[in-house]
């Protein structure tokens, strides 16, 4: 399938609702609250799941005719970057989607972070899979199989991490494939981020490296980078 038509198909539903961004946002947020409540229970939802508005963003295609335009780009904008939102949504109101950032907490400290989109809000099999993964991480910390968030952050700080912006148990590691790791990022430098990956059981440092921010990350941490500007 031609890539332009594939993108058009994926964003057709967004095109329908694009005239009312707030309504679309409220619809998706409400659905995810319902998904979390049904799976984890209301008490867990209130105590252990936190929506991070300041780290949420949109992905927008810079075109109003995705079928015939060959030169459009995709940009990412933090939802608190009002000036940029007004500029680009007024110019290109048709094709965009929203990315919601959620933190999952163990005793008030973040142990997992995940991005959610409207496209998957009604995909029960996808949500059940990710929620089961979150619950597995939570229980492994609770049962002392995995390091707690406090201990993982302590190790990161001992390795020079002073401006931690991301901390999560994950199995999405480029360097340590097919295994869970504690992954922690330092965002003290706006140009690139430092990353440390730990064995979640022993706390052993598996990987320590620097890399560029992804476009979504730059949008997610926009408020952090612009705090002093």
Commentary on this structure:
The chain is of the alpha+beta class and 229 residues long. It folds into two domains: 3-142, no CATH class; 149-225, Nuclear Transport Factor 2, Chain: A. The protein has nine helices and nine strands. α3 (21-40) crosses α4 (42-48) and α3 (21-40) crosses α6 (124-142). The model is unreliable at 1-24 (pLDDT under 50).
| Global structural class | alpha+beta
> How many domain regions?
2
Strand content: 25-35%
- What is the overall shape? globular
Whole-number average pLDDT? 87
The radius of gyration is: 19 Å
Question: What low-confidence regions span 5 or more consecutive residues with pLDDT below 50?
Answer: 1-24
Number of strands: 9
Instruction: Give the helix proportion (percent range).
Output: 25-40%
Order of helices and strands: HHHHEEEHEEHHEEEEHH
The count of helical stretches stands at 9
| Alpha carbon gap, first and last residue | 44 Å
Largest sheet: 5 strands, antiparallel
């Amino acid at each position: 399938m031609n890539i332009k038509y594939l993108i058009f198909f994926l964003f057709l539903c967004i095109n329908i609702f694009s005239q009312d961004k707030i309504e679309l946002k409220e619809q998706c947020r409400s659905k995810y609250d319902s998904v979390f409540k049904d799976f984890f229970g209301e008490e867990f939802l209130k105590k252990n799941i936190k929506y991070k508005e300041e780290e949420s963003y949109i992905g927008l295609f810079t075109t109003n005719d995705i079928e015939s335009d060959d030169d459009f780009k995709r940009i990412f904008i933090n939802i608190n970057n009002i000036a940029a939102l007004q500029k680009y949504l007024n110019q290109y109101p048709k094709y965009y989607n929203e990315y919601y950032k959620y933190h999952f907490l163990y005793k008030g400290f973040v142990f997992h972070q995940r991005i959610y989109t409207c496209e998957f809000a009604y995909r029960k099999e996808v949500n059940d899979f990710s929620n089961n993964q979150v619950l597995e991480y939570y229980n492994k910390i609770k049962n002392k199989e995995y390091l707690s968030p406090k201990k993982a952050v302590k190790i990161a700080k001992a390795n020079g991490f002073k401006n931690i912006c991301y901390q999560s148990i994950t199995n999405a590691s480029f360097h340590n494939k097919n295994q869970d790791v504690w992954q922690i990022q330092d965002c003290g430098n706006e140009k690139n981020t430092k990353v440390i990956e730990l064995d979640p059981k022993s706390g052993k440092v598996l990987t320590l490296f620097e890399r560029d921010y992804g476009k979504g990350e730059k949008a997610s941490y926009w408020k952090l980078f612009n705090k002093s500007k």
